[in-house]
Automatic annotation (TrEMBL):
Keywords: Signal. This is Uncharacterized protein. Residues 1-16 form the signal peptide.
Length: 251
């Protein structure tokens, strides 16, 4: 928890600093908003194209789930550099039932241990604007930074309509908060009577390399903070920290 607070504070300092545009290239820092053209595929097609359906989610969601980070928008499989994923904003679904209960699941399908949960919220009432503390927080949001060299990771956001309120103090859910891994997503949804997801979205990310090249010759403190944040969240080898940078530039 202390690490998460530190990460969010450091992220706010980095994302909010106007000096990040001081280099001719984006370097290892975050600059501006990542713009992506709206996908022309349907949600169902996107989930099939990325082999999420039927490998993990037997029936793909039909509706589009709006999801935004501080400097990027999720758009059915678009690539988002790791450092743009540390500042979640809102998730929105405009077809939700006024008196309904919903579960929002954010998962890494390519995590080290089966399906890794990035965050899990249950008993959400207002799905017009879901924030990381909406409903009952089962798994607190953790920045979804992939391990260095682990390749491209597919991350999915799934919204389920509950049959009714779910007891968030169940032992299995308390265990999940400490070890956020779901070995079998289908079994999990059946256990809590969630059915098929009503809405969804997905994106990809990858930590490409720790690179000793120095693209910014005159680094100010904001750029150094950005590099430090990347190293912390991506678990770069401690022996590399003094000499190497984590590269998180946009494609």
């Amino acid at each position: 928890m202390e690490l998460l607070v530190y990460v969010l504070l450091l992220t706010q300092a980095v994302l909010g600093n106007t000096k990040l545009d001081s280099c001719d290239e984006e370097c290892t820092c975050i600059s501006g908003i990542l713009k992506t053209e709206k996908s022309c595929t349907s949600v169902e097609e996107a989930f099939r194209n990325f082999n999420i359906t039927p490998d993990y989610v037997q029936v793909a969601p039909k509706d589009f789930l709006e999801a935004d980070f501080g400097t990027a928008t999720v758009n059915l499989g678009n690539f988002i550099p790791p450092l743009r994923l540390v500042d979640p904003k809102t998730v929105s679904y405009h077809k939700g039932k006024k008196h309904g209960y919903y579960t929002l699941l954010d998962i890494d399908f390519d995590g080290e241990s089966n399906v890794k949960v990035i965050d899990l919220l249950m008993n959400i009432r207002d799905v017009e604007k879901v924030v990381p503390t909406s409903g009952d927080v089962i798994v607190l949001f953790t920045p979804p930074l992939p391990a260095l060299g682990s390749g491209v990771h597919r991350h999915g956001k799934l919204l389920y309509e509950q049959k009714g309120p779910i007891d968030a103090n169940q032992l299995d859910l308390l265990k999940l908060s400490r070890y956020p891994v779901i070995p079998n997503l289908t079994k999990f949804t059946k256990t809590y009577h969630l059915g098929n997801p009503v809405a969804g979205n997905l994106y990809t990310t990858e930590l490409r390399r720790c690179d000793s090249s120095d693209k910014c010759l005159d680094k100010d403190d904001s750029v150094k903070q950005c590099e430090r944040l990347c190293k912390i969240l991506s678990n770069c080898n401690n022996d590399q920290i003094d000499q190497m940078q984590c590269d998180a530039v946009d494609k």
